[in-house]
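Researcher: We're teaching a course module on how sequence relates to structure. For the next exercise, students receive a sequence and then see the predicted structure as tokens, so they can try to spot secondary structure elements on their own. Here is the exercise chain.
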Amino acid sequence: MKNKNQVGLFSLIGLLFILGASSCNKDQGRADFEIIQDEILTPNCANAGCHSSTGDASYSQHKLLLSIGNSYDALINKAPQNAAAIANGWVLVKPGEVDKSFLYHKITCETGHHSVNIGAQMPLGGKVLSRGQVEFIKRWIIAGASKTSSAVDDAILKDSSACQVSVEPLAPPATGTGFQLTIDPFEIPKNFEREVFVRKNTPNSDTVFVNRIQLRGAANSHHFVAYSFRNEMLLPAQNQLRDLRDLVTGVINQSTILEMQNHVFLAGGTDVNTDITLPAGTAIRIKPNMPVDLNAHYFNLTNLVLQGKNYANFYTVPKSSVQNEVKMLDLNNLEIYIPPGTRRTFTKNFTFPTTTRVVMLTSHFHKLGEKFVIKIYGGIRNGEIIYTNTDWEHPLVKSFGTPIVLLPGEGLTSEVTYYNPSSVAVAFGLTSQDEMNIIFGYYY
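Model: And here is the predicted structure for the students to work with:
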């Protein structure tokens, strides 16, 4: 017969056992994957336009559904669309093997997991997962990626610090081969889109010729563009960060808008981590100490303060190797209006008054863009497609070793298709929630 002290001791041990068991996964017995679906995939990934349905504008690019009832079967041992991931032998989720799981590589901010070109960190649209969310998914994969088990301690989710991939420093060109311009680190406030400009002067004391431009920026960037100026009598202050929107009120700064009217496209676009090389024999003339406006646009849809930073390397070639100095194409169609739940295609022709030789083309539209087609307008090649892009986040940059020759009166046609799955109409505008339609490129 047990004495009272023994009974009390056993009762205490039983209570501690119950409490200990409940602390392993406190989320009312939900399976690990149910937590992942409810707390991570549904609010951050299974959104209209991303991974919610086959009707999403980007579905043809990723072919991945992460909505309830679809996500588990779509992830486990399924091949990704990314060529680098396939070459590495990765699948979307490899049970028990996190380093062979493409999903983990796409969401982690750990150094060393982005040595190959696997595209932007997920999720897009300014949403950054917390370190706790990433760690929970990591441990779920290591534990076997079960659909029904509860093997991971949900207390991990309490770590709400941002899992943002930091920008790896871009080494400047070697002495005598070019120069670097940067936007120093700056904060992107919680739930805010921050677009900044900073005017720098190139460091060259003599005229140089640039044939390659390499860009690098942080995650959650909408674009990174370098501009020169039409009228150098109207320059903004040097080395001073200027905002498109007031950081407190969000109201557009009209002075910045006026400064933007003085821009001439120099390089860049939607993909902030890109490397552009012009065809042999062509280059951009950079005069001594030329003023350049660096423009970075970041969006932050989290309750965390994020950081932006940008690098731009300009690589030079000898003047003797340059047969043709290129100029910049910057062709805009502002007449965009996409009603809710509709797919629309917008076409605009751009003509040139003199003979024009196009050596490179790229495009710029936002997340509702499905397809950006550029055709030749006029002449014997009228209607010929010379450029097609379906990836708004990483647009194709296409060089033409043999230039596209356009005679006076001929030109280019932009034919751009958008799909708006939302309940709100979308038109041309400056934020990532609006749309754009721009042909960028180089010609002589």
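Model: If you want an answer key for the exercise: The first strand starts at residue 178 and ends at 188. Residues 7-25 have pLDDT under 50 and may be disordered.
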